[in-house]
Amino acid sequence: MKAVTWHGKRDVRVDEVPDPVIQQPNDAIIRVTSSGLCGSDLHLYETLGPFMGEGDILGHEPMGVVEEVGPEAGDLKVGDRVVLPFQICCGHCWMCTQGLHTQCETTQVRDQGTGAALFGFSKLYGEVPGAQAEFLRVPQAQFMPIKVPEGPVDERFLFLSDVLPTAWQSVAYADIPDDGSVLILGLGPIGDMATRIALLQGKRVIAVDNVPERLARAQARGAEVVSLDEIDDIGEEVRSRTKGRGTDSVIDAVGMEASGSPVAEMGQKIFNALPKRLTAPLMNVVGVDRMSAIYSAIDAVRRGGTVSLIGVYGGASDPMPMLTMFDKQLQFRMGQANVKRWVDDIMPLLLDDSDPLGTEQFATHQVSLDQAPSAYEKFQKKEDGTIKVVFKPGQPAA
Ligand SMILES: NC(=O)c1ccc[n+]([C@@H]2O[C@H](COP(=O)([O-])OP(=O)(O)OC[C@H]3O[C@@H](n4cnc5c(N)ncnc54)[C@H](O)[C@@H]3O)[C@@H](O)[C@H]2O)c1
Ligand SMILES: [Zn+2]
Ligand SMILES: [Zn+2]
């Protein structure tokens, strides 16, 4: 089959690889009909290279049709239309029963000290073959698949794999008071969807980015938008709009690819020049993060407010402004989204044919797998109006 594979920094290719096969009795195989490209894939493309293996299949936002089921795949049937969560989880361990599926005790990657295994996400998360491919092996198939009805186009349901529950969790964890306000940093797919959800819940949203079409989408939905290019200081700007206080909550939907921190960028360049065998162990210790978004979040949130980190961070020794965090009496929540925890909350909005979250128009680019190298590049450089790319593995090259 065809699959999008990692070959080095900013080098993804479309390779012919063996079809996946059932390996465990509770596996299933799906034929992928749509598969998202995520901001998290950009970390692998750019920063997390030391943890990747040449030829690893990328992607973790799939939906499709069940092709084959193992004898212990529960009530899953060949022909079912399903969306798969980006994390692999069993549904019956203690963590899963607490709604903490990204901490699943059956699939935790203990040799790396990380949580649940993820599709297509480096050695840190189990090196499980990813979903930007024609077929996907689904472990834990007695629990993983989210069955969705026939009828609406894939895009109505596809984002249940990641974007929707991630954005939903970011808003839930932000703990925005009734009639309260939230600052959303970053208007990629995650920040954009978080904006839509917070607005639907009646919150005041101030949203920040520097990409004009991303700002325009959030503004069209009713957010107050601020372009990074037009202000000197996010905290000052936010305080000027909130009686000098700051917003009740902040969602950091940027993570470690933040722009605006030149010193860290230099560290990153030095780091990238080191031999790979040195960098993997170093990265966990030294920290190469670009921290500008989280620093803005800490500055712009009001005293006693909540910061919800949904953008991904890695590394250990970046200095955190502990005095400010303590003195402002802040609360922090963070982590990978527990997809299955939020499906029942989100599903009614997807079954509503008025499509209140605008899922059907959410993707800006639908492309064949063959176009992956250019799609990754355009998404990273934010060229050609690229906000959300969806691969259509069944489609021939354009
Ligand atoms: N926690 C989870 O479960 C989960 C799931 C999916 C994605 N993510 C993470 O969420 C983050 C966003 O993902 P995405 O798909 O929206 O990616 P993206 O890269 O498209 O979006 C990031 C946006 O942040 C903007 N930005 C950069 N620096 C900024 C700054 N200093 N201030 C404000 N905005 C800034 C960029 O212009 C871009 O629009 C990534 O870190 C991704 O890994 C987390
Ligand atoms: Zn993702
Ligand atoms: Zn579990």
Task: Explain what the structure shows.
30% of the residues lie in helices and 20% in strands. The chain is an alpha/beta fold and 398 residues long. The protein has 2 domains: 2-162 and 338-391, Alpha-Beta Complex (Quinone Oxidoreductase, Chain A, domain 1), CATH 3.90.180.10; 164-334, 3-Layer(aba) Sandwich (Rossmann fold). The strands form 3 sheets. Strands 3, 4, 5, 6, 7, 14 and 15 form a 7-stranded mixed β-sheet that branches. Strands 10-9-8-11-12-13 form a 6-stranded parallel β-sheet, with helices on both faces. Helix 4 (163-174) crosses helix 12 (339-351), helix 5 (189-200) runs parallel beside helix 6 and helix 7 runs parallel beside helix 10 (292-300). It is globular. Mean pLDDT is 92; it is low at 260-267 and 284-289. Bound molecules: nicotinamide-adenine-dinucleotide and zinc ion (ZN) (2 copies). The site of one zinc ion has 6 residues, from loops. Nicotinamide-adenine-dinucleotide is lined by residues 38-40, 42-43, 162, 166, 185-191, 208-211, 214, 228, 253-255, 257-260, 292-293, 310-312, 336-337.
